[in-house]
Amino acid sequence: MVEQEKQQKQFKAHQSWKVKVLIAQAQSVMQAAIDAGANESTAPDWEVADRTSLQAKASGAALAKAKQLANEMASGLGARLGGLIYASNQAPSLNEFFSEGFWRRSMGGGGGGDASKLVPPPPPPPQLMLFAPKVKQDATVFAVFSIE
User: Fold this and answer.
1) CA 104 to CA 112: how far, in whole Å?
2) What percentage of residues in the chain have a pLDDT greater than 70?
3) How confident is the model at residue 111 (pLDDT cuts 50, 70, 90)?
4) How many domains does the chain have?
5) Does residue 64 lie within any of the structural domains?
6) Would residue 72 count as lying in a domain?
7) Which of these, 131, 108, 102, 125, lies nearest to 27 by C-alpha position?
8) Residue range 54-107, pLDDT digits in tens
9) Is the CB of residue 143 less than 8 Å from the CB of residue 73?
10) What is the pLDDT of residue 112?
């Protein structure tokens, strides 16, 4: 029996392909692979064509919301919102924020890491029907404005 199992295993093969196409072409490419004899398919990996642009758009929207909130806070204090002093997508620690060094660094502009997340794709449906997931990009900003 062991010899028979060896013979069966020696002819097993595995092949994989990675193909990048536009979303509109994904369904027909997958169907062509199946028509050509593919007998196993895993869920497709979906990628955003221009992630940098998507992150920039999310960060811009987050900064606009931060400015709106800061304006409302300034109005509540009976003051007028001034210019943006510092912006980053990472909030400093309280010790760093209240230290003198933070204010010196903040005058030169912001920077920071990436606090964004991409929504994962949904699980594949039972029949061969591809659906690209809706992409959502979140951004968190820490902004300091002056008041007048």
Assistant:
1) 16
2) 67
3) very low
4) 1
5) yes
6) yes
7) 131
8) 888 888 999 999 999 999 999 998 999 998 888 887 766 666 655 555 555 554
9) no
10) 43
Quote the tokens at residue 139: 């951004």
Q: DSSP string of the chain? A: -HHHHHHHHTT-----------HHHHHHHHHHHHHTT----PPPPP--TTHHHHHHHHHHHHHHHHHHHHHHHHHHTT--EEEEEEEESSPPPHHHHHSHHHHHHHTT---------BPPPPPPPSSS---PPPP-B----EEEEEE-
State both tokens at 15. 């092949």
Q: What is the pTM of this model?
A: 0.51
Is 10 part of a structural domain of the chain?
no
- pLDDT confidence of residue 30: 83
Are 147 and 80 in contact by the 8 Å Cβ rule? The answer is: yes
- The residue that leads in pLDDT, 132 or 77, is 77
Is residue 28 a part of any domain in this protein? no
Among all chains, which residue has been given the structure tokens 């997958």?
A: 30
Cα–Cα distance for residue pair 1/97, rounded to 1 Å: 72
Q: Which domain holds residue 91?
A: 48-147
